[in-house]
Each structure stands twice: as C-alpha cells, then as structure tokens.
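Morning run. Coffee first, then this:
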Amino acid sequence: MNPCIRVKDGVSFSIIAPGGFRILAAVESAAAHAAHDLTITSGTDGEHSGPDDPHHRGEAYDVRSQDLPDKNLALAAIMNFLGDIRFFGFIEDPDTENEHFHIQVRKGMMYP
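And here it is:
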C-alpha cells in the first residue's frame, strides 16, 4: 500500500495559494513517512475565524490526527518538510472528537 492524502466528503479547495500547495506536499510526504493515509478535514470550506482566515485564502488545512498510530511523528514530519519559519502547525482540540492538525502559512508571513 502506498499511503496517500484522502479528503473528507464536503471539503472544498476553491482556491489553493502557493503556501497551500506547499502544505499539501508536506502532508503527502508525511503520509509516506508515517506509512499511513492522512485525511484533510477542512480546506476553504467550513466556518473558521472570519473572512481573513487563512483557510479561506487557501493557505491552511486541517488534517485528521486521532486515527494515527503516532500523531506527534506525523506532525513533526509535516513541519520538517515545510522546514521554514513561514509555516505554523499544531494539534488543535487535543484528545477530543475534533482533534486535528491545523497547518497554515504563519500569520503575517508570505509564501513564497
């Protein structure tokens, strides 16, 4: 099996900014590193923190984490791939049904 990126039903990608493409590449690389599919649970869809939220600009994605054998390893693989101070990622809502990675272009930064 080749691990890959999966997408939850209803997730939309109405715009993908350059930083968004970089994040998607990092998620794909982390899936291979973790030997486990990674599922994007939010793109430009959904309600976020307002009209200037990076999700709406195609600069942020949420990725399911609660089904991973080692979520810290997967998040580290994503952030190591990004390897850049222009990105930020963390486990949002840890130990809840809504637990997920939130990865985005860091606030106030531009990519490229």
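Strands lie at 5-7, 38-42, 60-64, 87-92, 100-105. Good start to the day.
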